[in-house]
Amino acid sequence: MIRPYPVFILLVMTAFVALLTPFPDAARAATVQQTAKEAPDDPVIVRVQGQPITEKQVLDAIGQIAQSGQRTAEQLQKKDVAFFKDAVENLIRFALLRKEAQEKQMTVDKAKLDQAVQEIVRRFPSEAEFRKALAAQGVSEADMRKSLEDNLLFNQVLEVALKDLAGPSDEQVKKFYDDNPQYFAAPEQVHAAHILLKLAKDSTPDQKAEARKKLEGIRADIESGKIQFAEAATKNSDDQGTAKSGGDLGFFPRGQMVKPFEEAAFSAKAGTLTPVVETQFGFHLIQVIESKPAGKVPLEESKDKIRAFLDRKSKQEAAGQYMEGLRKKATIETVMTEEEWVKRHGPR
């Protein structure tokens, strides 16, 4: 299994058209940008190919960034300054992508847009909840639809630009696997099943003794061959999530189960039963089915994830190069510098 990795992220195009959960709103500032007009109370921050990006648009984009991801209290307090560069950069990217779409006469298929809208609506328990969420964020359905259309259009531009990009080769996949063993370390695991007899929090010593005695009797019946473990679990276990499957818990590493259960399971040999174990949930009888020592996940089990990661990374880099190319041939005029912005929006 591949562990978290700094570059193991979504394709870069989604960073340009980031969607806010539970529905997309990040492109709202970019949508407004199409019709932005210069006004005394909304000064221009930058012009892209003559198209103004105004203060209100930048503030709106800053709001989108502040709401996405984990932000510290200090970042949120100073968000108008802290996220200024990122907001302007995103708006410039939107403008460049929109200009490219116009030059190539690209449009979004209505059926594809309708499908995207319905996918958003289905994330809510009902259409009424969807409309309520829109209202809570001060977004109309038309605004949301336009934001979605922009997202799809920007992605479409990038997809066309990257369509001839070759996928990772088998050699590249193996090299990543060989060069990064830390991401494929497999911890020691056991495959176990259990029978649980629950105890109430206010159980008396006599009630506990009775439950333990019952489970000891079940253990004796299994050991003698009178009943199979799976059948005993189905008939007796209070763990409704596993009883129907014979108490099977599958494979698990250390640290996933409560300590007394873990110690018993990892101490027993494969094919044996543990003594009765007490945890905060009650009494358990554990059957250890199989043990796997710590090792390395085989390449065969990892190659699909590696290939997908390398593909995303390659596209991310190619998209960045493509955007840099658009910037080089575009006329981008800074009207308000960062220093001037800080004077207007920084701490007083």
3D structure, described in words:
The chain has 348 residues and is α+β, with helices and mostly antiparallel strands. It has 2 domains: 12-169 and 301-345, Porin chaperone SurA, peptide-binding domain (Triger factor/SurA peptide-binding fold), CATH 1.10.4030; 188-293, Chitinase A, domain 3 (Roll). Helices cover 53% and strands 14% of the residues. It has helices at 12-16, 28-33, 55-67, 73-77, 79-82, 84-103, 110-121, 127-136, 141-161, 170-179, 205-223, 229-236, 240-243, 259-267, 299-329, 338-345, and strands at 44-48, 51-54, 185-186, 189-198, 248-253, 272-273, 277-279, 282-292, 295-296, 332-334. The strands form 3 sheets. Strands 4, 5, 6, 7 and 8 form a 5-stranded antiparallel sheet that branches. Strands 2-1-10 form a 3-stranded antiparallel sheet. Strand 7 (277-279) and strand 8 (282-292) form a beta hairpin. Helix 3 (55-67) packs across helix 6 (84-103), helix 6 crosses helix 9 (141-161) and helix 10 (170-179) crosses helix 15. The longest helix is centred in the last third of the chain and has 31 residues, at 299-329. The radius of gyration is 29 Å and the shape is elongated.
